[in-house]
Amino acid sequence: MEKIDLDRLVTEKRNKATMDLDKLSIHQAAIIMNKEDQKVAIAVKEALPWIEIAINKVVASFQNGGRLIYIGAGTSGRLEVLDAAECVPTFGVEPEMVTGLIAGGQKALTVAVEGAEDDADQGIEDLKRSELSKNDTVIGIAASGRTPYVTGALEYAKKVGAGTVALSLNKDSVIGKLADTKIEVDVGPEFLTGSTRLKSGTAQKMVLNMISTISMIRIGKVYKNLMVDVKPTNGKLIERAKHIIMEATDSTYQTASEKFKEADNDVKTAIVMILTDCDKKTAKQKILKAHGFVRKTL
Fold this sequence. Notes:
Helix content: 40-55%
Number of domains: 2
CATH architecture of the largest domain: 3-Layer(aba) Sandwich
Structural class: alpha/beta
Strand content: 5-15%
CATH class of the largest domain: Alpha Beta
Protein name: N-acetylmuramic acid 6-phosphate etherase
EC number: 4.2.1.126
Number of strands: 5
Shape: globular
Order of helices and strands: HHEHEHEHEHEHHHHH
CATH topology of the largest domain: Rossmann fold
InterPro entries: Etherase_MurQ (IPR005488), Glucokinase_regulatory_CS (IPR005486), MURQ/GCKR (IPR040190), SIS_dom (IPR001347), SIS_dom_sf (IPR046348)
Distance between the termini: 62 Å
Strand order of the largest sheet: 2-1-3-4-5
Enzyme class: lyase
Keywords: Carbohydrate metabolism, Lyase
């Protein structure tokens, strides 16, 4: 195997503030760790112009019937799989609309799969199995910026003509050179040398949150700051759904509950029924005509 040069990677460098980490008290370690974590949001702020470009790509994919496909390994892979999974209940989308592919498959979510991230061909195969099309956007994620599983996937995505974005925690990354858009967030050396589940992982989570959430807002999944397409799949979410209806329409709990039931437990339909004083069928027609945007039905 070719020697991997870690010397140039910021994520592998030692942090001067924690050189005596094993000697620190719990109090001292917690203070330093918190101080290091505060640097993450500032670093993400520097990458906002490129994050905005990535969001526009994802929105365009959604509007053209395409998907958002994340692909990564290790911590990066686990974070993107989590973000993809959370889109289903939060925004009421089908699981295929936002997909997370991780090196080593489902097993890698809980245990390390040896050598999986070094297999570039597997990244290609995983995208082929997902039936990647030019309408999709692929976001390759790697803290190091050089993971073969991700590089292989991005190279294949480019050949297909899909939109490509690279998210890494090192400048001048390999994956950044392969993608149409690169998001490179420099959070500095980790609190614990090389442990990219820390600041790097936090930065990745923040960026993924922005991409998925704002993209969903742009396709009508939110009214004001309310998740109006939430799937009420358990007791807590049913109550949240009713409160969302109350907040959106300034109605009582009783009214919200009644309309929620009339709307077959569809929050958005119930809101439009109340705000435009119409029945379920008409509300659904209004929403369809407005391409899912509640505000445009008013």
